[in-house]
Amino acid sequence: MKKFLGFVKKEFYHIMRDPRTLLVLFGIPVAQLLIFGYVVTNDIKDIKIAIFDQSKDDVTLNLSNKIISSGYFILNENLNSINNIEDIFREGDVKEVIVFEPGFGQKLIKNGVAHIQLIADASDANTANLIVNYTNAIIQDYIRKENRQQKIPLQIEPEVRMIFNEGLKSVYMFVPGTMALILMLVSAMMTSISIAREKEMGTMEVLLVSPLRPAQIVIGKVIPYVVLAFINAITIILIGYFVFGMPVKGSLWLLLAENLLFISLALSLGILISTLANSQQVAMFISMFALMLPTLLLSGFIIPIENMPLILQWITYIIPPKYFIIIIKNIMIKGTGFEFVWKETLVLVGMMLMFIALSVRKFKIRLE
Amino acid sequence: MQKASIIVKDVTKKYGNSTALNGLSLEVEHAEIFGLIGPDGAGKTSLFRILTSLLVPDSGMASLEGFDVVKDYREIRKIVGYMPGRFSLYFDLTVQENLEFFATIFGTSIQQNYDLIKDIYSQIEPFKNRKAGKLSGGMKQKLALSCAMIHKPQVLILDEPTTGVDAVSRKEFWEMLKALKKEGITILVSTPYMDEAILCDRVALIQKGRILSIEEPQKIIVQYAHDLYSICTDNMFDLLEDLRNFSKSNSAFRFGDTIHLSVKSGFEKAELVHYLEGKNHEQIEIGKIDPEIEDCFMELMTDENKI
Q: How many CB atoms lie within 10 A of CB A20?
């Protein structure tokens, strides 16, 4: 045990004495989060809409006012028919048309159900998606407030799903993704590089010819990075909370536990990479291509998985960050408990065990 | 009867098509300083790596203190001290941290075995807070040595430990090895310096993965069968070629600023002078010398090549 602690101490020296490592460990995560949070934003503002109100009663007027006064939308025109709807979109200013059915208010009070049609300009799929979601959120908010005075709950269709995050701020989507990316980068890349460095420097030769067991070498390598990656995860949550107002609605402990799980997974991947790579350069390139790019592109971080071609959608099933992002979004934004994320958690645990088993098998007790 | 400390039997090791070790056998006794001499690529490092359990031989067996290098590699790693040819230090750790680290992973401490490394470590101790990467070559080597012996191994394997070390430190280093030998430690060392070979109890000349000869250094010299002359002239560039073409010449090799010529029987000094003058050499100096171990090795190597 003393041997092992001596080894861990040495690893901390390595990290603390290398300014570049420190920069990668702490500078990049903060910078990345701020850049993604501030610059790469999908927030919508002052979107022009048109309303075709076939009912013109109190309910539709109230609802229209609520939508327009939300700050997200500007009323471009009131329509008298939707025959020329394509032309309206073609002119390019209007991004969404809201259609109330005839007798909207009456139906709502009498039957408890009324229909509303949201037509969005889908030439920009992501924006359209966002606009519809925003509108839905506002309608849902309206109906919820109305329902407080009603015995029989009222309903406006289409059914609205965006009840959790009415603001729909894009930073809410970026925090989980950035978290996955940074933890992956720090854990997998840094461990694989640090093990590859021992090989490159020739010190691995001496370590192998010591009473240290291979498992002790590997775990000793990994522990400092577990600690550092965990500090990173907490930093990201704090920045998300204080800078971007990103709430943690679910259990903080569950969130941290899931983070720890993902860190371990990334580290086991890092060890696996290091068993394949003999130099720091190779380790870095494998990490970049095998880990960073899929995390960026295939995890649902930047590109929604639903928008991908079918083949790529299948591939996303083997991308660990995908599950992590789902879990984190659930816990942070929706505030769900473990009962809703246990499946994803199980997948991550399974992947981790597989990677560990693989790297133990591949780790060489000798030079060849 | 107690078995030898290091036993190597018919070990063969191939890398792809090239053969690094070709049926090599040797035995090293307990508390013996055993030198391994041979050119680059002779298979010294491969042999060391097999003995330290870093490589598995293709065929044959090897053991250290009775432990098989393949089967009992865990035991081997407890009793062996190994210093690879390259600096195997952590350059971003200080001298003391390096030493402490290696002491810790072998389950000992600097204090416990300080006596063992005192002679050499005391020289770098003034720099103990300097990072290993900032040490001079000789000091790095001393530190690496200290690290390899800090756990008082039963068998010490040193791959060219004195390469790049100044003459004074080399001498100190060999005195240290002798002290270690008194502690009962078996030492296997490879060296490119022939003057160091003399300091070994026995030396093995190794080439192309085979042992040419294992002897006490003095005996190797005694066995040298030919007369040896040291020759220099004003035109050293052509001299080597001319001497090799000389009818009574056995072999000729360059040693520093002279050429050592071993000759066949019936050699006359005047005949050679005449021959060289015919080849336009001036300021010819010829002196008979006693063979050194390097001459013997060169000789053995040429014999080997002829076979």
A: 8
The three-state secondary structure class of B33 is strand
The separation between CA A152 and the C-alpha centre of its own chain, rounded to angstroms, equals 37
Nearest of B289, B85, B300, B70 to residue B206 by alpha carbon:
B300
Q: pLDDT tens digits, residue range A258-306?
A: 999 999 999 888 888 888 888 888 888 888 888 888 887 888 777 767 6
Strand partners, B59: B12
Q: pLDDT tens-digit profile of B129-188?
A: 998 888 877 788 888 888 888 888 889 999 888 877 778 878 888 888 888 888 888 999
The CATH number covering residue A77 comes to: 3.40.1710.10
For residue A16, the one-letter residue type is M
Burial class (CB in 10 A: 0-12, 13-18, 19+), B109: middle
SS3 state of residue A149: coil
- Please tell me the distance in Å from B20's CA to the nearest CA on chain A: 15
What mean pLDDT do residues A353-368 have? 79
Distance from CA of A367 to the nearest CA of B (A): 5
Question: Nearest-CA residue of chain A relative to B94?
Answer: A13
Q: Say if the ipTM goes beyond 0.85.
A: no
The region that residue A46 occupies, defined by phi over 0 for left and psi between -120 and 50 for alpha, beta otherwise, is left
Q: With contacts defined as CB-CB under 8 Å, which chain B residues touch A9?
A: 101
Please give the C-alpha separations between residue B97 and each of A6, A191, A193, B103, B142, in angstroms, as whole numbers.
10, 21, 22, 10, 15
Check whether residue A219 and residue A239 sit in a common domain: yes
Number of domains in chain A: 2
Reported as a pLDDT band with limits 50, 70 and 90, residue A148 is confident
Q: Which chain B residues touch A210 with a CB distance below 8 Å?
A: 77, 102, 105-106
CB B224 within 8 A of CB B54: no
Task: Give residue-wise pLDDT tens across range B55-105.
Answer: 888 998 999 888 998 888 888 888 888 888 776 788 888 999 999 998 888
CB contact under 8 A, B93 and A13: yes
Task: Say if the Cβ atoms of A206 and B88 lie within 8 Å.
Answer: yes
CA distance B148 to chain A (A): 9
Is A333 within 8 Å of A309 (Cβ atoms)? no
Is the residue at A52 inside a domain?
A: yes
Q: Which amino acid is at A47?
A: I
Residues of B in contact with A7 (CB under 8 A): 101, 104-105
Provide the 10 A C-beta neighbour count for residue B222. 11
The bridge status of strand B227-232 relative to strand B202-207 is unpaired
Please name the residue ranges forming H helices in A243-304: 252-276, 280-287, 293-297
Please state which CATH number belongs to domain B225-290: 3.30.70.2070
Let me know whether A195 and A74 are in one domain.
no
